[in-house]
Amino acid sequence: MDVQTLYDFIYSLTNSFEQAQDRQNLSEAFLKALSIFFPLKEIKIYMMDEYSFVLKDFIKPWQNMTSTKDYQDIKKCFDDFLVQKTNYKVDKNILYFPIRKQHKTLGIVQLISKEIIKEEDKFNTNDFFKIFPLVASQISMLITTLKSNEMVQIASKFHKTLRNIAKITETQYELEYILPIMGEMIDGFVLDHLIYIFLKNKNKKGYKLIWPNKCSDEKIYEYLEEINSKSSTIIKSDGKMGIFPLIVEGKPYGAIVAYNHFDKITSKELSYLEEIKSQAQMTLKKAKSYVEVLTHATMDALTGFNNRHQFEKRLKETVSSAKRQNTPLCCIMSDIDFFKKVNDTYGHSVGDCVLKTVAKTIKKELREYDIASRYGGEEFIFLLPNTNIEEANVVAQRLRKKVEKKKINIEEYKIENVKEISVTVSIGVSEYQKTDKEPEMLYQHADEALYEAKEGGRNKVVIYKANQA
């Protein structure tokens, strides 16, 4: 091997750690660096789990490998490294070598070549075996260093998760909205277990799944029935499942469930999740208090618009004024297109960001005396006094175009390869008619037009016509 090739290899291997953002990146960097010696097809890394004492895939540690046909071969090879302290093993097109730290065997690397490996053959692998101790030592160091860094990051993520859960009520207070946000936060922190969030049914027995969309394990629902007002953490399935009841003011409100089909919850994970549960309970208590206070409030906390209750009050006042002064009055009702997809793809925190940004974008385009309200979810409703239907259509089209062009920065949410997104809105417009029997008919007509806009392809404005009903 010439000096330049050796230098390129060591440089590539050293840089692999600095450039790696996660385990997948590091594994890919190893594959690229080691391909200097072999026509490599794949590299696999396995680490011995200190709690379950089974080898786990370095990239996907949550997968159960023990049932795979290759596991016994890998485990036997690992055991040989434990006993014999050999440096490598070659089996046809596969090269195995141990991951060691301070003479302790922690895992095993499997290099899968596209062709048969021999210690001296046309692929020049003899050069590789000459510098093998250096290679194995460097790779072992990079893997164990990455794992150590991950422990620091996990502690940091834990504290960030606690802070974020505490901050949820700054913008939201409805349980069915804030619980899924909690689920996303906890899931992003607890990587080796499936996380479920359940909410206790108000008027009937049992619990309903709030996050994620599906739970196929019916046993969880059975275990949830064991929760009472004095329940603490419940451990099931031989330590593989942890149920963390959310008790607020002496009553069960819901539960956080962590479950791994083949690994026990470690004492460290248990400690983290219990602290998260305590913070979640405080957040739910605060949300409950907010609900009681906000029953009499007028503003939507997230967007700064009127809330639905205040809208209904302003509607009656505005319609009454338009009738008395004989002036035109229009209503615009808008809905963010495919908003559920935004939540499902990027998470509810990004969904909140979208709602706030769209509200802010629209607010800039309205007059001071226009009445803006958040009707519910992703729906906004606007009353335009002294505005006829032609003028309202111009306003609606302007709103639609402004939202369509707006780039929503989501960089702070650290979505891989996504720094900004765009959304569109569908809009329905109606004008108050003297023949309308009730004020509510104004926005009901706008809602009908909105439905037509969505059915007609979205990102469009539809004007309500009296004969379309």
Task: Spell out the blueprint of helices and strands.
Layout: H1 3-19, H2 23-34, E1 40-48, E2 55-57, H3 71-84, E3 89-91, E4 94-101, E5 104-113, H4 125-130, H5 132-167, H6 175-189, E6 194-200, E7 207-211, H7 218-224, E8 234-236, E9 241-248, E10 251-259, H8 267-294, H9 308-325, E11 329-336, H10 339-346, H11 348-363, E12 371-376, E13 379-385, H12 389-405, E14 408-409, E15 420-421, E16 425-431, H13 440-455, E17 461-463
Parallel strand pairs: 16-17
Antiparallel strand pairs: 1-2, 1-5, 3-4, 4-5, 6-7, 6-10, 8-9, 9-10, 11-13, 11-16, 12-13, 14-15
Helix pairs in contact: 1-2, 1-5, 5-6, 5-8, 10-11
Sum this structure up briefly.
The chain has 13 helices and 17 strands. It has helices spanning 3-19, 23-34, 71-84, 125-130, 132-167, 175-189, 218-224, 267-294, 308-325, 339-346, 348-363, 389-405, 440-455, and strands at 40-48, 55-57, 89-91, 94-101, 104-113, 194-200, 207-211, 234-236, 241-248, 251-259, 329-336, 371-376, 379-385, 408-409, 420-421, 425-431, 461-463.
CATH homologous group name of the largest domain: Reverse transcriptase/Diguanylate cyclase domain
Number of helices: 13
CATH class of the largest domain: Alpha Beta
Shape: elongated
Query: What is the residue-averaged pLDDT?
Result: 87
Share of helix, binned? 40-55%
- Low-pLDDT stretches are 121-125
Question: What structural class should be given to the helix and strand makeup?
Answer: alpha+beta
